[in-house]
């Protein structure tokens, strides 16, 4: 009961890189005090009151903007601000009303359009990049998007791979217009089971239709809705004190990792306590999730994680869990197995990493590192070396070498060999907001 509530609160809890969090999700479980809304600003709308957004879209930096009237919110936390402070020219056209719809262009074929943020107001479209209005805008919608109607309700990007080709989905009343960016062909659909969307948002490869203060997740090709919807947006896409959140982003000096790994496709995951964070999603901001959302067997946290040959190995206590490294992660049959059986060692393990293209897993236990050849059977410790650094809790090998984490600092070595044999430790470096979305 408690667990399902926790999962529900946390499922899509997220913060932009402007105000991110390793801590909030943890707080979400505990923070059930219903303190009253104190500051009711008359002029500024409060999204915690439960409002219907006009439009939602991220910019090229992964900051998500939520629009309502002539105000917007920048990110998942913080107060409403005047839209024209961010997008100046939106205010210059007083005969046009508020933003009806917005999306961020995904068009790798045309770098000049890629990542531009488009706004639709009545029959006009505005294109911004780096928060400057592009030359020639605003213009009539149909000049850029032939076949797409004016007075839209919502719009959302849909890159190839998620849609059949790089596309935009436009919503107006009960109609959905699937606009193919390259061919400019429009397919009109009706997804009668989906509520009329007043804004639409793609976030971490998922699609959300917002209606009232609720949202419904849908499949961008079939329109299918799976799961229990609608859900109240205040539990997920914003930080509202009486909706279970309200914690602050942690200080970088308080961040400690249990494990960190990057797979072959560059997806990078950092683990701490019962949550993890994707570190490679700057286009959508950095976000935290309960570990159980992705690796359900590991709700209580992990000790060490490494990636090897399309699989992710998670070590907890004296057990090893191996998952196929594609979402949804599936536990390979027969696992977990004991560390002894899988790697020929006893737990617990503090950190583990494999360098791309290599078969050696480097296992750190206390102040020693053991190398195990994953291509050999049976697996045995081929080499054991004492380390110059104590207290390593997480480690990762990437294109620029090895980073090992001790508390909120890390040490950078060019290779596992240098980690093992350097006589001198390099100066530790501090985890920065850029790396983990914490605050100074
Ligand atoms: C973005 O805009 C800022 C301020 O207007 C400017 O200083 C900067 O050079 C611009 N960056 C790019 C990539 O155009
Ligand atoms: C959806 O939009 C259509 C067209 O504007 C309208 O007739 C219908 O009443 C709307 N449905 C709801 C549930 O608001
Ligand atoms: C929001 O969704 C809840 C169900 O989760 C429903 O009871 C409520 O009527 C919806 N409210 C609006 C404004 O759509």
From TrEMBL:
<feature type="disulfide bond">
    <location>
        <begin position="158"/>
        <end position="163"/>
    </location>
</feature>
<dbReference type="InterPro" id="IPR018487">
    <property type="entry name" value="Hemopexin-like_repeat"/>
</dbReference>
<dbReference type="GO" id="GO:0005615">
    <property type="term" value="C:extracellular space"/>
</dbReference>
<keyword id="KW-0813">Transport</keyword>
<feature type="binding site" description="axial binding residue">
    <location>
        <position position="245"/>
    </location>
    <ligand>
        <name>heme</name>
    </ligand>
</feature>
<feature type="repeat" description="Hemopexin">
    <location>
        <begin position="194"/>
        <end position="240"/>
    </location>
</feature>
<feature type="glycosylation site" description="N-linked (GlcNAc...) asparagine">
    <location>
        <position position="196"/>
    </location>
</feature>
<protein>
    <recommendedName>
        <fullName>Hemopexin</fullName>
    </recommendedName>
</protein>
<feature type="disulfide bond">
    <location>
        <begin position="355"/>
        <end position="397"/>
    </location>
</feature>
<keyword id="KW-0964">Secreted</keyword>
<dbReference type="GO" id="GO:0046872">
    <property type="term" value="F:metal ion binding"/>
</dbReference>
<dbReference type="InterPro" id="IPR016358">
    <property type="entry name" value="Hemopexin"/>
</dbReference>
<feature type="repeat" description="Hemopexin">
    <location>
        <begin position="149"/>
        <end position="193"/>
    </location>
</feature>
<feature type="binding site" description="axial binding residue">
    <location>
        <position position="287"/>
    </location>
    <ligand>
        <name>heme</name>
    </ligand>
</feature>
<keyword id="KW-0408">Iron</keyword>
<dbReference type="GO" id="GO:0006879">
    <property type="term" value="P:intracellular iron ion homeostasis"/>
</dbReference>
<dbReference type="InterPro" id="IPR051298">
    <property type="entry name" value="Heme_transport/Cell_adhesion"/>
</dbReference>
<comment type="similarity">
    <text>Belongs to the hemopexin family.</text>
</comment>
<keyword id="KW-0349">Heme</keyword>
<feature type="repeat" description="Hemopexin">
    <location>
        <begin position="96"/>
        <end position="148"/>
    </location>
</feature>
<feature type="disulfide bond">
    <location>
        <begin position="197"/>
        <end position="209"/>
    </location>
</feature>
<feature type="repeat" description="Hemopexin">
    <location>
        <begin position="50"/>
        <end position="90"/>
    </location>
</feature>
<keyword id="KW-1015">Disulfide bond</keyword>
<dbReference type="InterPro" id="IPR000585">
    <property type="entry name" value="Hemopexin-like_dom"/>
</dbReference>
<dbReference type="Pfam" id="PF00045">
    <property type="entry name" value="Hemopexin"/>
</dbReference>
<feature type="disulfide bond">
    <location>
        <begin position="48"/>
        <end position="240"/>
    </location>
</feature>
<keyword id="KW-0677">Repeat</keyword>
<keyword id="KW-0325">Glycoprotein</keyword>
<dbReference type="GO" id="GO:0015232">
    <property type="term" value="F:heme transmembrane transporter activity"/>
</dbReference>
<dbReference type="InterPro" id="IPR036375">
    <property type="entry name" value="Hemopexin-like_dom_sf"/>
</dbReference>
<feature type="repeat" description="Hemopexin">
    <location>
        <begin position="254"/>
        <end position="298"/>
    </location>
</feature>
<feature type="repeat" description="Hemopexin">
    <location>
        <begin position="299"/>
        <end position="346"/>
    </location>
</feature>
<feature type="signal peptide">
    <location>
        <begin position="1"/>
        <end position="18"/>
    </location>
</feature>
<keyword id="KW-0732">Signal</keyword>
<keyword id="KW-0479">Metal-binding</keyword>
<comment type="function">
    <text>Binds heme and transports it to the liver for breakdown and iron recovery, after which the free hemopexin returns to the circulation.</text>
</comment>
